[in-house]
Description:
This protein is an all-alpha fold. The protein has a single domain (23-322), classed as Hydantoin permease (Orthogonal Bundle), CATH 1.10.4160.10. It has helices spanning 3-10, 26-37, 40-50, 55-84, 88-96, 102-131, 135-152, 154-182, 186-191, 200-209, 212-215, 219-222, 228-257, 262-268, 272-302, 306-319, 321-327, 329-337, 340-353, 371-385, 396-416. It comes from Anaeromicrobium sediminis.
Amino acid sequence: xxxxxxxxxxxxxxxxxxxxxxxxxxxxxxxxxxxxxxxxxxxxxxxxxxxxxxxxxxxxxxxxxxxxxxxxxxxxxxxxxxxxxxxxxxxxxxxxxxxxxxxxxxxxxxxxxxxxxxxxxxxxxxxxxxxxxxxxxxxxxxxxxxxxxxxxxxxxxxxxxxxxxxxxxxxxxxxxxxxxxxxxxxxxxxxxxxxxxxxxxxxxxxxxxxxxxxxxxxxxxxxxxxxxxxxxxxxxxxxxxxxxxxxxxxxxxxxxxxxxxxxxxxxxxxxxxxxxxxxxxxxxxxxxxxxxxxxxxxxxxxxxxxxxxxxxxxxxxxxxxxxxxxxxxxxxxxxxxxxxxxxxxxxxxxxxxxxxxxxxxxxxxxxxxxxxxxxxxxxxxxxxxxxxxxxxxxxxxxxxxxxxxxxxxxxxxxxxxxxxxxxxxxx
Length: 427
């Protein structure tokens, strides 16, 4: 391996296709995707759903439906990533153009740095509450450890996930077991009626909205899949099983204790140490993925090394974590509305315009800006913002994705012509 090849490999192929020698099988990829979808906020959202639905069949239906939508969306992106072995940001070059892709890369990177900072604070505050340890040291330690893992790259994320995934499943099952016992058995939990019932549409919207921006980044990890089948299967396992499990853990704990915060649920169940461990591992795996994705986005924007940009991004997220936690969650949620159309546009470009065939990035003559994609993005954000609050069309991220797909295809045909083939853009 040449010096240049070693440099590219050490930077986790940020701007290149992942070579066959670095690709992973189903177990490895599923572990990473489960670590990605084992998200503390999903458990908290599950707690909210648990207080608004009967456990069976209403809650199970809502969780299953929402995560099937996420799984299908992620699987479309995962297939594209596993076939091309390219990140979200390089796939965006085909769909948005070289310069055009810098805007979605900036939005994705900026949002993920923000969520990384929020995650560091989410790690520190509960531990401070339960143990009395000062916030600042916890934030510094958490930020350094999480950043260090991401600097090492995909391999370190893989190993953290191998430790965290079984531990989180074990701790979550312990919590559910205690909830069932303390609640008088499963029949008693099934009989609990919600005080303020939510509709299926609202519940599904909450389920999908809680992780749709993360699902847009699926290619950043699934590009390491050994085959297309592995990529799709790992994505579906992560979203339909992993994310559903997090919702159930949070929901059952909320039904049994009346608390939507999983760390408080575990503390109330006499599992304080387990609660802290679950919280730390849960946030660590998701934060690592967020920071990793932000590094890839910044690499696409600047052309600099991913690992150096990761250090900068991790430092910024850590330094501003308290500010982000207290002031930025609403803004980050707003930004997250703009992310799903990016995935929709990539899906439209890869599957509908290019018929699942992208040439190598080194052979393709990219547009500078694909204006069809820009138009589709703007229209999709508008469609999302005017979505109704109730009913079947209230799932705003899904509205944005479908709108982006349709508008991109129509706008591309109108601006560039319907017969433009991928091969005509090969150098």
